[in-house]
Amino acid sequence: HLINPAEEARSPRVVTPFPAPKITDLPQFQGEHKETLYWGTYRPHVYFGFRARTPRSLIAGLMWIVIKDGRYFMRHVCQDSDELSTYGWTSHNGRDFGHQLLVDQDMTLATSFLKYKEDGSGYGGDWAVRINVQSQGWKNEMQKNVHLFFYLADEDGNALSLGSDILDIHENSLLASGLRTDIGGWQLHLKSKADLEVHYSGFRTPHIHNLSDLVQENLASQLLRFSQLQLPDIYQSSSNILVFQISGRIPLETDIVFVSGTGINSRVEERINNLAGISLTNRLKEKQREFDAKFENCFQLADKLDSKSITVGKAAIGNMLGGIGYFYGQSKISVPRNPDVKSHDDFLLYWPAELYTAVPSRPFFPRGFLWDEGFHQLLIWRWDLHISLDIVGHWLDLMNIDGWIPREQILGAEALSKVPAEFVLQHSSNGNPPTLILVLRDLVNGIKKNKFTAIESNEIITFLRQAFVRLEAWFQWFNTTQSGKDIGSYYWHGRDNSTIRELNPKALSSGLDDYPRASHPTEDERHLDLRCWMLLAADCMDSIAGLIDKENKPGKEYGSTAKLLSDFDTLNKMHFDHASGAYFDFGNHTEKVRLSWKEVMVGNNHANRELVREVLERPELKLVPHVGYVSLFPFIARIIPPESWILEKQLDLISNRSILWTNYGLRSLAKTSSLYMKRNTQHDPPYWRGPVWVNINYMILSSLRHYSLENGPYRDKARAIYDELRHNLIRNVVENYHQTGFFWEQYDQKQGKGKGARVFSGWTSLVLLIMAEVYTEM
Ligand code: 6A9
Fold first, then answer.
1. Neighbours of 312 (CB within 10 A)
2. CA distance to 506, 676, 725, 726, per residue, from 662 (Å)
């Protein structure tokens, strides 16, 4: 099976797909499944966007204009600088219904959508968007108008036809029409009782990711020439982009209806009327009722929590599902030609691939992140198993021949336009915790506990059979490339051992970025979290293998690997510190490091003042004494026997206010750590060095719950801490949501204030599972 050198040069291993049938090619993801998920709000980076799950789709989106300090501002791509006081999906079912609220200055926009397939509809069915604009007592007495811009763009370059040169929607509601191979003929209609003025511009360009600029420039030139904020009603020949300006007085409501399969006898007229006006109102109401009922059925919060919290729980699942995107493109993989020179140009393109995935944050990180996705799926599978399997399948299909999956997925021009150059390249030496395996084990447990119908169980089993070779390769990738010197030891490879600017060289692979590790990266390192991830992965593999009846192949005895890694004595020998009762990383380390300002030569005759690291003592091989999330991994992985005094020690570390406990959840790093809240470089403020993160708190809570149910002397203690921690987390996320209008990436450990990225409805949405007390079983 040797690849000959010529072959190798043409297609280097790092960009060679894993040689096995794709999971997403399974029959369960074709047919009706595929069609029902064809159209959706799969453009999470814009305030409202629609597209189909196909590489070159017809896409739709919304922009609007606000005036601030006498200037016009265009809203389109989710941006913090727009300072919306809130926005997000208050409900969304991931399939055919959603309701979003956006508050921009004194204007409240609501976008609802509904998908519907009926007799005559083309592939994927029809859909409608209702846009409602209200004003809460506007500031000046001037009659207030709103300008909405709704666009369609064909990524495939097909020309879009204009309904008519002079658009008068009360005469004729047709705005545009066209033809595509996927859906056949289609039409876009505008239906409203309001007195609306409609203008348009048609453009022909392949650069669809620059739509905001295109429209803005078009408007600005009109404004200059005619002092009118109005698109010029010009249509370039064979335009593949059509923008409609819909202007009217607030309050305003308008329905935009898209129908496909518009051939003869396809009941177009009737279908449009079904998706507009009173009929749309009724259907949206019905869908809202269904959503609420499914929410209660799934999470059963009604008897547990107040309505303020339930609202937040609904926003958690709504935003998680509403944030699901579809991306298509090629990752850029770093292949340094000269290891001493860092360059953004030395890269290879991964194969063109599709990714259907949830995203951590619409304005900040509207793209896929590997370990975030496992946390997202812990929530999503409980809502919609099929969406979840489809997403996990897409991720595993991104694996290369070495069993590696790129951590951050920046696919396509739109995704790329959001990422600074220095973050684009992916490094094939870098991993990310295999959280997706936890999701699969959850499903295996679900089957064992009869949580699924027979059909669903079969689908899961078929999925796992197809996925198994990939999971094995993934496991092997970790087990070989990330192993340490001693048996059963691992460390996150790829830390920079030559940096002079970092107080503590980051371990981005771990997902915990700047969480302090050994001060001097070497091959002697042992990372506690990775060791525990390996245990969890081996254990999951073992239960998956058991379910699908895979005979153990030599060298792949997951059960015995799990046994080795869960051996309490070995763990303690390698990682336990008796003096503090805590578990630590091991490595070449000194506590005596600091950042100080120095003259650093750049070139031959120029010096810069920079913050550089000073090492005041020779590092030695030893345990790395930072108590924090990493220390708690043996507790998270449930290696500690319920009767051990070491369990009590962990409970003490958790509940001690001078160490990890706060009223808002557990700190990422102990107050007593030498790097607590320390900057890592001139430009990097502390990240995983203090603030409260919901994903790890969820895992710790999960274990507290576990130990509160196991027989043992510390059972009640675990229970009490569990109750209080759960309560604190819920209270703080709920309060922040109501005060600020958003979920946050992290929460400040002193006041509980949300910080980092806003609209972070990724793993922070796990608060809903915390509300429902639903945890992963092991
Ligand atoms: C920066 C800047 C507009 C960092 O949630 C995604 C990841 C986590 O996987 C990881 O554990 N976040 C956490 O430590 C955010 C990562 C952002 C990196 C890219 C680009 C773009 O600014």
1. 22
2. 25, 14, 9, 12
Q: Does residue 397 have an active-site annotation?
A: no
Assess whether pLDDT exceeds 70 at residue 553: no
For 447-497, the pLDDT digits (tens) are: 999 999 999 999 999 999 999 999 999 999 999 999 999 999 999 999 999
Ligand 1 neighbour 513 (Cβ under 6 A): yes
The two tokens of residue 479 are 């087990």
Between CA 261 and CA 190 the distance in angstroms is: 18
Beta-carbon neighbour count of residue 187 at 10 Å? 21
pLDDT for residue 141? 44
Closest residue (by CA) to atom 22 of ligand 1?
364
Nearest CA to ligand 1 atom 1: 423
- ipTM score of the complex? 0.95
Asked if 295 and 317 count as a contact pair (C-beta separation under 8 A), the reply is yes
Whether the CB of 364 sits within 6 Å of ligand 1: yes
Q: 97-120, pLDDT tens digit by residue?
A: 999 999 999 999 999 999 999 989
What is the spatial distance between Cα 317 and Cα 762, in angstroms, rounded to a whole number? 10
∠ CA 654-659-660, nearest 5°, is: 45
Residue 741 has pLDDT above 90, yes or no: yes
Any ligand 1 atom below 6 A from CB of 360: yes
Is the pLDDT score of 550 beyond 70?
Answer: no
Separation of alpha carbons 612 and 554, rounded Å = 49
**Among 159-163, 357-361, 551-555, 718-722, where is mean pLDDT lowest?**
551-555
Choose, from 155, 373, 745, 748, the residue flagged as catalytic. 745
Residue bearing the bigger pLDDT, 8 or 287? 287
HSE, CB side, 13 Å, CA atoms: give it for residue 270: 9
Distance CA 41, CA 59 (A): 10
Q: What is the CB neighbour count within 10 angstroms for residue 158?
A: 14
Alpha-carbon Rg for the chain, nearest whole angstrom, is 27
Here the tokens at position 398 are: 């991104």
Q: Is the CB of 525 under 6 A from ligand 1?
A: no
- Phi first, then psi: give them for residue 9, nearest 5 degrees: -65, -35
Query: By the 8 A CB rule, do 660 and 670 touch?
Result: yes
Q: Which ligand 1 atom is nearest residue 407's CA?
A: 9
- Give residues with Cβ within 8 angstroms of 739, minimum separation 6: none
Ligand 1: atom nearest CA of 361 is: 5
pLDDT tens digit sequence for 234-270: 999 999 999 999 999 999 999 999 999 998 778 999 9
* Distance (Å, whole) CA 721 – CA 229: 59
Q: Residue 607 half-sphere exposure, CB side, CA atoms within 13 Å?
A: 6
Q: Which atom of ligand 1 is nearest to the CA of 760?
A: 5
In the numeric block, which tokens belong to residue 590?
A: 């000194």
Instruction: Compute the mean pLDDT over every residue in the chain, rounded to the nearest whole number.
Output: 94
Q: Per the residue annotation, which of 156, 290, 346, 513 is the catalytic one?
A: 513
Q: How far is the CA of 365 from the centre of ligand 1 (A)?
A: 7
